[in-house]
Amino acid sequence: MRLLFFHGAGGFDDDRAIADDLGRALGSPINVPRLPDEDMSLEAWATPIRRSLGELRADDAVVAHSFGASVLLHVLAEGVPAPSKVVLLAMPNWGPNGWDVEDYAFGGTEPLLPFSLHHCRDDEVVPFVHLALNAAELPSARVREHASGGHQFDGLADTISADLVG
Asked: H-helix or E-strand containing 151?
């Protein structure tokens, strides 16, 4: 299994620690493509995400963090070739009860693949309430709450990786 990791907004460097920790926990090579911080449009991020998903093998897994998780969800709803497992970390909810940004709000069809939503109660970037909002929109997702770890999921790589091998 290889691991593909999509970082959050402005997070290529900040998210590298959790990406590397997940790769070590899984004993897997990891690919972290740099997504465009200069253009935060959904399509500017979706294009390289689609391209990266097209290079996956059947047993590969994908983890996406924060804004990257939001965009990955949109791309997966398009029915593109999907990985075997997906984990979405600290995904913002862009609907009217969340951050209320129509351009990013998810209103598509829930992906038909195993995926998990992870969020830490002490996340100071994306409020913890977003987990419940996303879980309501994505009823087939496994929901994983963590007492601590912050927005970067400090110390949680082993726990998160369990959703990718189980």
From this structure: none
Give the closest residue to 153 by CA, choosing from 62, 10, 22. 22
Q: Which pTM does this prediction carry?
A: 0.96
Alpha-carbon distances, residue 37 vs 64, 67, 68, 123, 152 (angstroms): 15, 11, 11, 22, 18
Could you identify the residue written with the tokens 């709803």? 77
Give 2-59 pLDDT, tens digit per residue: 999 999 999 999 999 999 999 999 999 999 999 999 999 999 999 999 999 999 988 8
Report which residue type is found at 122: D
Structure tokens at 112: 């038909």
CB atoms within 10 A of CB 83: 24
**Could you tell me which of 103, 86, 87, 91 has the C-alpha nearest to residue 137?**
91
* Alpha carbon distance 55, 37 (integer Å): 22
Count of Cβ atoms closer than 10 Å to residue 85 Cβ: 20
Is residue 26 within 8 Å of 1, Cβ to Cβ?
Answer: yes
